[in-house]
Amino acid sequence: MNSEFLPSACPHDCPSTCALEVERLNAQTIGRVRGAAENDYTAGVICAKVSSYRERVHHPDRLMQPLKRTGAKGSGEFAAISWDEALDEVADHFKQAADKYGPETVWPYYFAGTMGLIQRDGINRLRHAMGYSNQDMTICTSLAWTGWEAGAGSMWGTDPRELAESDLIVVWGGNPVSTQVNVMTHITRARKQRGAKLVVIDPYRTPTAEKADIHLALRPGTDGALAAAVMHVLFAEGYADHDYMAKYTDVPERLHQHLSTRTPAWAAEITGLSVEEIIEFAHLYGQTERSYIRVGYGFSRSRNGAANVHAVSCLPAVTGAWKHRGGGAMHTNSGMYNIDMTAIMGLDVRDSSIRALDMCRIGRILTREEESLLGGPPVTAMLMQNINPAEVCPESKLVLEGLSRDDVFVCVHEQFMTGTAKYADIVLPATMSMEHADMYRGGGHMYLQVVRPVIEAPGECRSNHDVIQGLAQRLGAQHPGFEMTTWELIDETLRASGMPGADEAAEMRWIDCSKSSEDMRYLNGFSHPDGKFRFAPDWAALGADSENMPTLPDHMASTDETSEQHPFRLVTAPARRFLNSSFTEMPSSIKKEGRPMALIHPDACEQLGLTEHDRVRLGNDLGSVVVHVKPFDGLQKDVVIVEGVWPNAAFEEGVGINALTSADRGPPNGGGVFHDTSVWLEAA
Ligand code: SF4
Questions:
Q1: Cα dihedral 198/203/204/210 (nearest 10)
Q2: What single DSSP character describes residue 584?
């Protein structure tokens, strides 16, 4: 057999955006998938789920032809139709809906099922050209990015390759062993070569925490308290760098004064950690010049998430760790790429006066809650690409209720018959990344990659780009981007961004977009007009709901706290073999993950009369779900963890863990609060 390895990139919602090499067995078939060894971030390492990608590409359940619903919504009964019939029907429904309620009744809806800029973001070109409702992108990054930007002013941090030059790495609110394996490659290098210490701060003993020198298993949503107490010790014990702060920060004296009451004893009460644990970590952090905080997303998914991320980002500004190679912090490098998205997204025809509906509130929106509709018409027609809201969005019972309505027309363009696709009126079969071209930028590193398809699209699958073009033509949408092929759009975008064209970029395989080490560490100033890091952020400039944000880094007591009725705090953490709801169809992933399980402290199990493998019901005012019990001592007694966005169908009552999570907006600018839920537990 004449196989060859061709370049590709991982399209999934993971900051690593690994550079891949995919074995092409013939024009229709892939074989092995491996990480590119020459890429110094991927470094030849990829996660197990993507190394098994052949299972996913050639899965027998892949959607292969357009389908039209024949049974009740959610029944899964469909009949095959042609592409022309399907696209005509979608366009007709959009036109009729817009005639009745105006264009804002149509809500194109998407997220990060692929991170490719063409196939992910092109849906916005149709939105803007037609005047359809905008989407407030709250489901993932909103709280974290707002919290980081509040202090640093822009979205980048110390080059992740410098992790290998660090003496202390703090993984705060992340679990890279399960979710971003490449971070561990660079951490392992530092540990082997320099004896670097690893500290993990996470409510439960994740696989990453198992590898750590110190694991701080704090209560969910108390990271701001821990950060404030650590800074208290840094000031009190002479670890604060006053010269650095005078040059690079806004109000160091006010911060010092404010922290005087934020003692380790104060934080111990809030976090559930011991005073000794807090002081030990503060000493280690204060004593280590090259300390690198890898700021994760986990602890941002809380009503106080933005405040927590900001508080954590203050630590290296107190010690001046930013001065040293391998020191400082990084959350994402997404702000480092200056890509001109005009042609892809139709930014030049965007009308910013059109409402932006909160994507986390899709349940409330489809069921016509006035407040969530922002004073506009109901949403009666949707096109969905790269997202599965019936399973990944909060308040999923309400989402299913909305999707079941006869007055809501939904077209889902998907790779598999997801929990959302089952409710669609029209289902369109989508290509996978190895079957279309695209361009990718890595949030967790600094490389831009342009890749061609590796194999042909199977069956009748079409790319997102092709569907957008087909609908634009039928709807009469006007924009130069609708006249371009995928490759032409990539070429146009790269050139408009001052980069080499598509052919040259693909030939280069990856383009290093990083700034100098000094710039990544803000040694030429932070990204505010005065060049100073903000201990006292201007929250009002970052979001309309800023009233209760803490003036200086602090514990913001706004979480869904435990009560007599709801004595446990639930965290819905990612599973190692799934990525959001992707990979939940892959046999090897399902085998490894087993079934939905609740990790519960053995003492709590005893109190509730639960033993391993028992069924337990978790509930709150939004609903309840039944899962199996796994006694686990790596968390506090009032914390419960359920990993993975399992499909609704994996749960006894047909609705998954997001039945319990709230669509409340985390201040100041909105954001999903997936790990901020109090619940009751009882034997089922
Ligand atoms: S680590 Fe992340 S980017 Fe790399 S292959 Fe796995 S999912 Fe894709």
A1: 0
A2: T
**Among 181, 184, 578, 581, which is best to mutate for testing ligand 1, by the most ligand atoms less than 8 A from CB?**
181
208 and 169 Cβ atoms separated by less than 8 Å: no
| Pocket of ligand 1 from Cβ distances under 6 Å | 10, 12, 14, 16-18, 46-47, 50, 180-182, 579
pLDDT digits (tens, 9 = 90+) for 56-81: 999 999 999 999 999 999 999 999 99
Spacing, Cα 46 to ligand 1 middle (Å)? 6
Residue identifier of the C-alpha nearest atom 5 of ligand 1: 46
CATH fold of 4-57: Phosphorylase Kinase; domain 1 (3.30.200)
User: Ligand 1 test: best mutation among 34, 180, 297, most atoms within 8 Å of CB?
Assistant: 180
Closest atom of ligand 1 to CA, residue 35: 5
The amino acid that residue 15 corresponds to is P
The Å distance, Cα 671 to ligand 1 centre, comes to 24
Burial class (CB in 10 A: 0-12, 13-18, 19+), 190: buried
Residue 330, classed as helix, strand or coil, is strand
Q: Report which ligand 1 atom has the smallest distance to the Cα of 181.
A: 1
82 — alpha (psi -120 to 50), left (phi > 0) or beta? beta
* Domain 568-683 top-level CATH class: mainly beta
Task: Say what angle helices 264-271 and 275-287 make with each other, to 10 degrees.
Answer: 120
Cα–Cα distance, 252 to 264 (Å, whole number): 20
DSSP string over 21-89:
EEEEEETTEEEEEEE-TTSTTTTT---HHHHTHHHHHT-TT---S-EEE-SSTTS--EEE--HHHHHHH
CATH of 67-137+338-431+456-499, one of 3.40.20.10, 3.10.580.10, 3.40.50.740, 2.40.10.220: 3.40.50.740
pLDDT in tens, 23-54: 999 999 999 999 999 999 999 999 999 999 99
